[in-house]
Amino acid sequence: MSAVRGALLTAEVEIEIPFQDLDPMQIAWHGNYFRYFEAARVKLLRAIRYDYPEMQASGYSWPLIEAHVRFVQALRYGQLIRVVAGLMEWENRLKLHYLVQDAASGKRLTTGYTIQCAIEVQSGELQLVSPPALLERLKGYI
Amino acid sequence: MSAVRGALLTAEVEIEIPFQDLDPMQIAWHGNYFRYFEAARVKLLRAIRYDYPEMQASGYSWPLIEAHVRFVQALRYGQLIRVVAGLMEWENRLKLHYLVQDAASGKRLTTGYTIQCAIEVQSGELQLVSPPALLERLKGYI
Amino acid sequence: MSAVRGALLTAEVEIEIPFQDLDPMQIAWHGNYFRYFEAARVKLLRAIRYDYPEMQASGYSWPLIEAHVRFVQALRYGQLIRVVAGLMEWENRLKLHYLVQDAASGKRLTTGYTIQCAIEVQSGELQLVSPPALLERLKGYI
Amino acid sequence: MSAVRGALLTAEVEIEIPFQDLDPMQIAWHGNYFRYFEAARVKLLRAIRYDYPEMQASGYSWPLIEAHVRFVQALRYGQLIRVVAGLMEWENRLKLHYLVQDAASGKRLTTGYTIQCAIEVQSGELQLVSPPALLERLKGYI
To answer: Are residues D31 and A27, on separate chains, in Cβ contact within 8 Å?
Structure first.
């Protein structure tokens, strides 16, 4: 799992590729990969009790500012994939790496990353340092 | 356009079926039809100045309580469709009929309807009669 | 589970409502319900070994010709739902009923149905009687 | 339009952000951006007569191998955006840059790129040099 090597924290989910995610080439249309990444990211954020409801309660939203995907091998109907998310940066922004593997063989199918920044909801101001709401939740891991 | 005959008001949009809406059978996956209906419904609601922002400002949300689709003929890649929305009921709930035609031939491809009810956002209460915010906007048409 | 009462066969799946399915009203956008129905339908079709790959191998496709949804109560972020699909008709067409329940309370949230007809892929001809490929798979249940 | 500076060829489309693309933060969910990019890419590929049906007829598919998005400013309901696609590489692979602007103000909202490689459908072999089917269509531009 070199794609998430060095992660402070990892989380993984298994997803079966559904019919409606496929395009006429019989492979998962690329826009759907963000659904798969999101599932693993949510699992990781829940592990530190900082999922969407808690983000909202903390007064911050965390929109994506950058995303990257490297498609190594196409995903097929009914294929069971394992999506691993790893937390790589947290002090000034939230950077997660993703690894998609075939659940059966462990073969690497996709890698990617996303970067999010905190915005204080009330002021609309972008935060250049991650708010305590996030950092306190990571204390046990750092 | 018998599918919307008797409508108080109609609106139409043209949409080209995009690649990512197709499934491996090379036809638009059925869940996407609500995107097409929505585009025509929004156009109709804008004509009476009661689009989402105005609904929100009026203190009501209008969730769907029922939807129906009859798929007459499949939609193909790049096909240009005309979606007509017609307002059929408004006094107690919002019922719209939809007709999807091939834009070039006028051939009927899909019909359907949606029913929405007003919910007062503050109290969360379902309204059995449509609020004045809607009825006033329809005065010129009734 | 009256919504699927009388079904020849039922299947169920559990789904957690993901963030990207929500709209600005904080509820699952209605077009996503067909994803939930599809998951339960696929499980049912697999139980009789007639999932998409087997449909294709049998020489038939089964496009939807009708769909209906009754939205009883909105779905929220992170809510765990149980989707039950029940096979109601099979001799001339495939009709399934769906019931969406809150997994924790069992409360009924949504009901619906879909109707599919067989089309012989090679000739493109609509079948007025279900092909043996389906009926043979149901022998043990009828 | 520095994001597509140096492009051999550009194409642009205008898109209005629909309700169902928004998330509970009232902004377009990031996975939808690939829909916007795709619309501009298709327009560019049509300009050289190499859209999906022609790709298929040429015996090649062009899956994405890499995608990148930089989200500069969030997209809101009803916002009219202009998506510009520019062809940056074509000899060995297809690389397009994208620029999303607010249609009214011209303000830069998003940039990104996608990279696709040709796969010969019959053999399943990845092509390290773009097939003549693409290069011949670009002759007039090079």
So the answer is: no
CB contact under 8 A, B24 and C70: no
Closest CA to C138 of C99, C87, C83, C95: C87
Residues 58-97 (D) with a CB less than 8 A from some CB of A: 61, 63-72, 74
For residue A96, give how far its alpha carbon lies from the nearest alpha carbon of chain B (Å).
Answer: 27
Q: Which residues on neighbouring strands pair with residue B95, listed in sequence order? A: B89, B115
Residues 6+ apart with CB under 8 A from D137: D48, D49, D50
Amino acid letter at A117?
Answer: C
- Residue D64 CB partners (closer than 8 Å, separation 6+): A30, A69, A71, D114, D115, D116
Whether residues A20 and C42 touch (CB distance < 8 A) is answered with: no
- Could A18 and C39 be called an inter-chain contact, meaning their C-beta atoms sit closer than 8 Å? yes
- Report the run of H or E that residue B68 belongs to, with start and end: strand B64-71
Which chains reach chain C with 3 or more Cβ–Cβ distances below 8 angstroms? A, B, D
In 10 A of CB A59, how many CB atoms? Answer: 14
Q: What pTM was estimated for this model as a whole?
A: 0.96
**Which one-letter amino acid corresponds to residue A109?**
L
> Counting Cβ atoms within 10 Å, is residue C59 exposed (0-12), middle (13-18) or buried (19+)?
middle
How many Å apart are CA C130 and CA D8, to the nearest integer? 54
Mean pLDDT of residues grouped by 10 in chain A (142 residues)? 87 98 96 98 98 97 97 97 98 98 98 98 96 96 89
Q: Is D87 exposed, middle or buried (0-12, 13-18, 19+ CB in 10 A)?
A: buried
B2 CA: distance to closest CA in chain A (Å): 31
ipTM of the complex: 0.94
Q: Which residue has the tokens 């004509």?
A: B47
The residue written with tokens 């495939």 in the block is C94
Secondary structure of chain A as H, E, C letters: CHHHCCCCCEEEEEEECCHHHECCCCCECHHHHHHHHHHHHHHHHHHCCCCHHHHHHHCEECCEEEEEEEECCCCCCCCEEEEEEEEEECCCCEEEEEEEEECCCCCEEEEEEEEECCEECCCCCECCCCCHHHHHHHCCCC
* Residue in B126, B100, B97 with CA at minimum distance from that of residue B32: B100
